[in-house]
Amino acid sequence: MNIAVIGTGYVGLVTGTCFAETGNMVTCVDIDEEKVKTLSSGKVTIYEPGLEKIFERNQKEGRLRFTTSLSEGIWEARIVFLALPTPQGEDGSADLQYVLSVAENIGKFLRPDDYKVIVDKSTVPVGTAERVRDTILGLLKSRNLEHPENLFDVVSNPEFLREGVAVEDFMKPNRVIIGTSTERPRKILGQLYAPFVRQGNPIIYMDERSAELTKYAANAFLATKISFMNEIAQLCEKLNADVDMVRKGMGSDDRIGRRFLFSGIGYGGSCFPKDVKALTKSAQGVNYDFKILEAVLDVNEIQKQHLVPKVLSYFGGKLEGKTVALWGLAFKPNTDDIREAPALRIIEALEQSGAQVCAYDPEAMGNVQKQMGDRIRYADNQYDALDGADALVIATEWSEFRTPDFNRMKSLMKNCAIFDGRNLFELAQMEEIGFHYESIGRKAVRN
Length: 447
Prior knowledge:
Layout: E1 2-6, H1 10-21, E2 25-29, H2 33-40, H3 51-60, E3 64-67, H4 70-74, E4 79-82, H5 97-109, E5 116-120, H6 128-142, E6 152-156, H7 166-171, E7 176-179, H8 183-193, E8 203-206, H9 208-239, H10 243-251, H11 272-285, H12 291-303, H13 307-314, E9 323-327, H14 342-352, E10 356-360, H15 365-372, E11 377-378, E12 391-394, H16 406-412, E13 417-420, H17 427-433, E14 436-438
Parallel strand pairs: 1-2, 1-4, 2-3, 4-5, 5-6, 7-8, 9-10, 9-12, 10-11, 12-13, 13-14
Helix pairs in contact: 1-3, 5-6, 9-11, 9-12, 11-12
């Protein structure tokens, strides 16, 4: 099947590459000439485990190509995926300017003898499919085409990709949501996704508005679970309870489940923060006060800096002249994405208190340097970051941070103090080794 994917960001590049992997002919379109040039030369522009291998294979086989020309990209495509950015506006709502601009251009290029399925893959507010349809239809009518409504259908097909395991999520989805009110695109997309659901996971068909809301509802609920557990962690610290024990007790209830119950320093990334705010804004638009989500947003912002008062207290409220090592800059492991990363808030708070920061992250340092420049120091590895450090803050749970050489750490640091925002280490181990250790929702080890 011939497919066009408009937009080569995180979602677009994974989507196009994975569709090519099942034998489809995929053309990816982007207005960024440098990015298209880089991708066409065989270089992946994002860090995502497993993506580079299938990207290279499908480009070599001629199933995956890139262009800056929208008309060229959609010319032979039966299905056109819109994987465009929907940035957060100043009021918290999703900005649809890129989606609607492309929809307008699609209306200029559709041919009267060539039916296409236009698919909203981006996370978009409820009613976007209708706006895309009206935009395209308006352009077709201005061209005086006969029966323009028969030339295309607009479908909502939200993505549920987790950064770090996006290729696996796409190739073996636990569900596929297809929002359409007509039969023709339902059959076409059913055929397209058939190779991905051979193990029996469902393709769930629904109307467009319900599909659009499903994506927001799923992300908002997961964000709520995270913020709820961070509130429980705060309470554990005040009541001298252990959040890890509470988590295990809660997670064993199959009505609750074990996932997304780990406490920490808040969620980040491109999805949860933006989607929770956008859903809250949508609710306000219909005069509904979504109180739970307002609380989720507040809790998450507070949680991002939860470690900083602990660091300040350890040093008697003064950080001038102190060097704090920071392990982890990405919002989660196995990605170089720093959007809404808690580490960035921690850096700002430490700097405002007079501390110098030396950071290490396996993948995200380049992105942080583009944003922050040389305000902080960047280490070549996790141990170099500790050389002469007065304390260590852990902000991202990269696997290589889980079993470090503690003796080596002791020899490098001025003070054996760790402030762990991801609860990587056991309390008994820290007590035995002799570190001052403070984490989230657990008692402090004061050595």
